[in-house]
Amino acid sequence: MLAMRPDCERCGADLPPQAPGAFICSFECTFCAECAEELDDRCPNCGGELVDRPTRLGAALKRNPGSTERRFQA
């Protein structure tokens, strides 16, 4: 199951699990759409492809909430 990290690792933008606009690599590094575009859809950590992260809604989100651990390092 995806951790659904709550923020962009590059700029700190909020990325709620129920909202579109998050991009992840195969290691679940997480970036907002703007940063993913600036990175040419390549993860700066592993070099992998950044793809749209699916959303998690309704009962699934209640049973399995997104992570609260923020990754952005100012």
How does this model look, in words?
With 74 residues, the chain is of the alpha+beta class. It contains two helices and three strands, in the order ββαβα. The chain has a three-stranded antiparallel β-sheet with strand order 2-1-3. β1 (22-24) and β2 form a beta hairpin. The radius of gyration is 12 Å and the shape is globular. The relative contact order is 0.32. The mean pLDDT is 96.
Enumerate how many helices there are, as a single number: 2
What value does the average pLDDT take? 96
- Helix content estimate: 10-25%
N-to-C SSE string, H for helix and E for strand: EEHEH
Radius of gyration: 12 Å
Physical arrangement of strands within the biggest beta sheet:
2-1-3
User: Unreliable runs, pLDDT <50, ≥5 residues?
Assistant: none
What spatial form do the alpha-carbon principal axes imply? globular
Largest sheet: 3 strands, antiparallel
> Structural class of the secondary structure composition?
alpha+beta
Strand content: 5-15%
First-last Cα distance = 28 Å
Per DSSP E runs of 2 or more residues, the count of β-strands stands at 3
List the SSEs and their pairings:
Elements: E1 22-24, E2 30-32, H1 33-38, E3 51-52, H2 58-63
Antiparallel strand pairs: 1-2, 1-3
What's this entry about, in short?
Helix content is 16%, strand content 11%.
Notable characteristics:
alpha+beta
